[in-house]
Amino acid sequence: DTGVSQNPRHKITKRGQNVTFRCDPISEHNRLYWYRQTLGQGPEFLTYFQNEAQLEKSRLLSDRFSAERPKGSFSTLEIQRTEQGDSAMYLCASSLAGQGSGTDTQYFGPGTRLTVL
Amino acid sequence: DAKTTQPNSMESNEEEPVHLPCNHSTISGTDYIHWYRQLPSQGPEYVIHGLTSNVNNRMASLAIAEDRKSSTLILHRATLRDAAVYYCILRDRNNDMRFGAGTRLTVKP
Lengths: 117, 109
Hints:
Structural class of chain B: mainly beta
Shape of chain B: globular
Distance between the termini of chain A: 33 Å
Distance between the termini of chain B: 39 Å
Oligomer: heterodimer
Order of helices and strands of chain B: EEEEEEEEE
């Protein structure tokens, strides 16, 4: 399967703990996106990378959140000192995009469901 | 950010056409109109996109109003597997994609 993969699929943690999620994009895709989705809502954009460069961060991405894409391939999203409000599905997507096209198709992974107790 | 407005929910009968509307009155000249759908317990998947002209692909058709202030996603023959939340999204040159709440489509057998 050459789709976007995310690990773990489910994570249960206690408030105050740190968690890290991993996303493996489709090979050769230069863009990687992170979204958060709560029940009944559409995905909310968090951040995206063009290769290894983080080009935009939403104001939703507080200083407890950090994302990396060290070699322009896989990406990690870390949440420090988790809060109950962080409970959500965290989605990753990748695409092959040129500059300023607005037409690239994003391929989404299955998501990581985080539950903070 | 350009905004879209969609009905919260719609129902359709199996094997009948479905027309899912989207209003985007503040669309700019360079915004592309994208549609994604999200099946239960899955990540969103691409359906179709367009700029000015109507578009067809194997999944659906996209009809874009002449003034581009609205569009309609057309599923020609709905199946039970088409039951999903459908999102209409405007994308600018920066490639940002902002989802709304979407339209939950129920398909009745």
